[in-house]
Specification:
- This protein has helices at 6-19, 90-111, 117-130, 137-149, 161-171, 180-195, 202-214, 219-230; strands spanning 20-36, 41-56, 59-73, 79-80.
- By secondary structure, the chain is of the alpha+beta class.
- The protein has a four-stranded antiparallel sheet with strand order 1-2-3-4.
- It is elongated, with a radius of gyration of 27 Å.
- Residues 101-224 form the Co-chaperone DjlA N-terminal domain.
- InterPro entries: DjlA_N, TerB-like.
- This is TerB family tellurite resistance protein.
Length: 233
C-alpha cells in the first residue's frame, strides 16, 4: 500500500488538518431580502466579506488575504456569489410581471386608436389574471384617454417614441428572468387584445413588434406568434 493511503493515512491527514489550516473570519456589510436558490424562496440574507488566516491548532496566526464578498442565507446558512442578488424576489417578480401585462395592454389599446368593448374586455381579463384584481374596462379606457392626451406620448403613429420607451421600461428588466414560453405568453396576450375587434392595424403590429423586441423575441418568432394568434385554434 502506498504511503498516505488507507485508514492510517486518512487518520494522519485528519490530525494534520486539525493542527494546520486556514480559517475565514466573516464580517457583515449589508443585509436584505433575496430569492435563495438553496431554499427555493424569498429569504433574508447577509452580505459578508471575509479575511483568511493561517491557523495553528485552530488559532489564527498569519493573514492570508481577503475573500468574498458572499451572500449568506439567514435560513439555510449557505453561501452564494453576489450575482444571486440580480434575481428578483418572488414578490418583486410578481409585481414586475403584473406591471408588464398592464403596460402591454394599455400600449395595444392606445395603438388601436379606439377602445372597442371587445378589446377592453379582453385586456381587462388579462390584467386581472396578472394580479390587478380590481381592474375594469372603464379604468382601462380612462387610462388610454389620459395617455393619448398626455403631451403626445401616445399618438396614432406606429411605434411612437413614448410608446416604445414605456414598453422597454416595463419589459427590459423582466425579460432575463422569463423562460421563452413566459415571454411569448405576454406577447400573445397583447395580440389577443389587438385581434378582439378585428385584424391587426399597422400601429398595433408595430406596438406588438416593440413588445417582442423588448422581450428579446426574434422578429421571425414575433411574426410566427402573431400569425398563430390570428388563426383560430
Amino acid at each position: 500500500m502506498l504511503p498516505g493511503r488507507g485508514p492510517n493515512g486518512r487518520a494522519a491527514a485528519t490530525r494534520l488538518s486539525r493542527l494546520l489550516g486556514t480559517r475565514t473570519a466573516w464580517t457583515a456589510v449589508g443585509d436584505g431580502e433575496f430569492f435563495c436558490p438553496g431554499c427555493g424562496g424569498d429569504r433574508n440574507y447577509q452580505r459578508l466579506t471575509g479575511h483568511r488566516r493561517f491557523a495553528l491548532l485552530g488559532v489564527p496566526v498569519l493573514p492570508r488575504g481577503g475573500t468574498g464578498p458572499v451572500v449568506e442565507c439567514a435560513a439555510c446558512r449557505r453561501h452564494f456569489g453576489t450575482d444571486v442578488l440580480d434575481h428578483p424576489t418572488t414578490t418583486r417578480f410578481s409585481a414586475m410581471l403584473r406591471d408588464a401585462v398592464h403596460t402591454v395592454a394599455l400600449a395595444v389599446l392606445a395603438a388601436g386608436g379606439t377602445c372597442s368593448r371587445a378589446s377592453l374586455e379582453t385586456a381587462a381579463v388579462g390584467v386581472r389574471a396578472a394580479g390587478f384584481d380590481d381592474c375594469t374596462e372603464e379604468q382601462l379606457a380612462a387610462l388610454v384617454e389620459a395617455l393619448e392626451a398626455d403631451t403626445g406620448r401616445f399618438t396614432g403613429e406606429p411605434c411612437a417614441a413614448g410608446l416604445a420607451i414605456e414598453l422597454h421600461e416595463a419589459l427590459d428588466p423582466l425579460a432575463p428572468h422569463l423562460a421563452a414560453p413566459g415571454r411569448e405568453s405576454i406577447l400573445l396576450q397583447g395580440a389577443r387584445i389587438a385581434l378582439a375587434d378585428g385584424p391587426y392595424i399597422p400601429a398595433e403590429r408595430d406596438a406588438l413588434a416593440t413588445v417582442g423586441a423588448a422581450l428579446t423575441i426574434c422578429s421571425d418568432d414575433v411574426t410566427r406568434l402573431l400569425a398563430a394568434a390570428r388563426t383560430p385554434s
